[in-house]
């Protein structure tokens, strides 16, 4: 993959991150101002299909910088990212969302 193509993919990832940042900020604000007893926090194992340490670091940072989620740990074999989620009524949907929003775009940059 050439430099221009990777640059375009990086811009796409940035736009997706900004969108997720805004959506997550609104969701967290609603949760904080609403009934916090209804929250279902969870620690989730997100299988990682990225090839590089830089890609995994980028994924972990995108997750941590998005309100309501925090990266906790990457497994020794780099195959799993553990994430704390403020509200996970459907844990599988949260994992799928992380993989579809961030990991997919980071894979495109990795080439």
UniProtKB/TrEMBL annotation:
It comes from Georhizobium profundi. This is Sodium:proton antiporter. One of its GO terms (cellular component) is plasma membrane. It is a multi-pass membrane protein. It holds the Pfam family MNHE. Keywords: Cell membrane, Membrane, Transmembrane, Transmembrane helix. It comes from the Bacteria. It is found in: Cell membrane. The keyword Zinc does not apply. GO terms for molecular function: monoatomic cation transmembrane transporter activity. The keyword RNA-binding does not apply.
């Amino acid at each position: 993959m050439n430099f221009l193509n990777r640059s375009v993919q990086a811009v796409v990832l940035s736009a997706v991150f900004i969108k997720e940042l805004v959506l997550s900020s609104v969701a967290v604000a609603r949760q904080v101002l609403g009934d916090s007893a209804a929250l279902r926090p969870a620690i989730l194992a997100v299988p990682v299909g990225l090839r590089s340490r830089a890609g995994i670091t980028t994924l972990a940072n995108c997750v941590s910088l998005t309100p309501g989620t925090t990266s906790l740990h990457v497994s020794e074999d780099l195959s799993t990212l553990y994430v704390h989620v403020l509200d996970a009524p459907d844990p599988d949907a949260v994992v799928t969302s992380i993989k579809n929003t961030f990991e997919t775009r980071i894979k495109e940059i990795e080439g």
